[in-house]
């Protein structure tokens, strides 16, 4: 067994246990299961990347951890603390995209799918921000900024996949979709009465977002290694 496999197995075990405990409404046990997710996926990334981690990636993991802690603590400041933490995560991921990806070149055939993506993202942003939640009204500027940052991140991911269609851009899109649904269903859990289905979708998409994010980091590192070998030859 490869050195990175135990941590990956632990990650998916934590995902499975989260689903089970959410389904039977054992919130305390679900919290224990979710607390395993980030450490296990971080160890998987660290070992898979030959015990190396960039500064930006390190900060992303750190703020994911802070946001997760706020979410699991469920205290008065948890919601806004988690929002600020994950907004920093999205900004850092966006910085990685802009810094390390080639400029997107659009063709005529890309106009229609990209227009659909823009309308869809804009519709989701307006619909979610229009919900009458107490915290959303109290910290409106923060929530609007958070929504705009996530929308820009999602736009970049989807347009990259539409124009390039590579495995790397597929991982980017899956990560963006997971984060979008995780955030939307987090808000739905605050707005609507308690529902096991809403909780399950929120937790599953949040955990899968971490997985796709790490796979994106690893695939990006593999591409950079191949490019270095080509240059050296």
How would you briefly describe this protein structure?
The chain contains 9 helices and no strands. The chain has helices at about 5-25, 25-50, 55-75, 80-100, 110-130, 135-140, 140-165, 165-190, 195-230.
Overview of this protein structure:
The protein is an all-alpha fold and 233 residues long. Helix content is 83%, strand content 0%. The chain has 9 helices and no strands. The radius of gyration is 18 Å and the shape is globular. The mean pLDDT is 87.
Order of helices and strands: HHHHHHHHH
Ranges with pLDDT <50 over ≥5 residues?
Answer: none
Fraction of residues in β-strands: under 5%
Mean pLDDT: 87
| Number of strand elements | 0
Helix content: over 70%
Number of helices: 9
Rg result? 18 Å
Q: Profile the largest sheet.
A: none
Instruction: Tell me the span between the first and last alpha carbons.
Output: 32 Å
Shape: globular
Structural class: mainly alpha
